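I hope you will forgive my troubling you with a question about protein structure. The matter concerns a single protein, recorded as an amino acid sequence and a row of backbone structure tokens. Please examine both parts with care and let me know of anything in them that strikes you as inconsistent. Thank you for your consideration; the sequence and its tokens are set out here:
***
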Amino acid sequence: MTAGPDAAAGGDVHVRIPVGVSSCLLGEEVRYDGGHKLDRYVTGVLGQWFEYVPFCPEALAGLGVPRPPIRLAGDPAAPRAVRVDDASVDVTGALEATSRRIVPELERVRGYVFKRASPSCGVERVKVYQAPGRSPRMGRGIFARAVTEAYPLLPCEEEGRLNDPTLRESFVERVFALDRWRRTMAEGFTAARLVEFHTRHKLLLLSHSEVHYRAAGRLVADAGRHEPAQVAGDYLRTFMEGMRRQATRRRHANVLQHLAGYLKRRIDSGDRQALAALIDEYRTGAVPLVVPIRFLRHHFRHAPDPYALMQHYLKPCPDALGLRNHL
């Protein structure tokens, strides 16, 4: 991993994070027509923070560039990849074999950006064609299915869905969180490292799911009673599944009020009233999340609280990404 343009994200020194990506999104001319699908947000914005690990399963499967286009057909739960112009040419086996070769290489990545609607890389709502006269059903690309089944906790998203501010924030936030977990546990799992990680991520997890927040807390409290590998696996699964839940204005407002409590005796009544008003304005949609967050961070700089300043909730990703400007 290489250094990113801004060292701080949630108080940590940060480096570019390894993330898998469909090669065509980086401008590589590997598509069936010999072209590409360069995505400026993926390369120009996220590329400042992500060290991409690109793959094109169709090209790697030896289908050629350019090549006859393929599509999915048959059972959406286990579709076949066949040529559009000749359904008797089935390339499913080649794609599955290539997927088996690639999947182990993804052990080191913290997320994956797939090409939307691709019969190999589409994550969801990929057309699966049926018999003539019947409407297509929806499934998942051959390679995308192999990746998501092998790594069910890996943050995965399609480039098209990254245009949605909520989906974009969720994906990037999970990539950074998973990277922090891997770095925290890089020298091996210990109860102390688990407590450190959980303490720093409590409020971030709470903003997504109170159920998972409480379940994760119980796992930490009982960590000494179980095998380390089991605790690590159970905790990471609980944490990442909770982070996958969509954060809402109500949940964010609750966390903001919780943080405001740490300033209660540290700022004057005028600032307390201003903060309460900002939280209410955020709750009703009048201002984006970044406004009360910046207010809190400003006052914690001048009236530090050790616990509050530990919280990655205040800065889960670099400010330069602007994720909370639109929430």
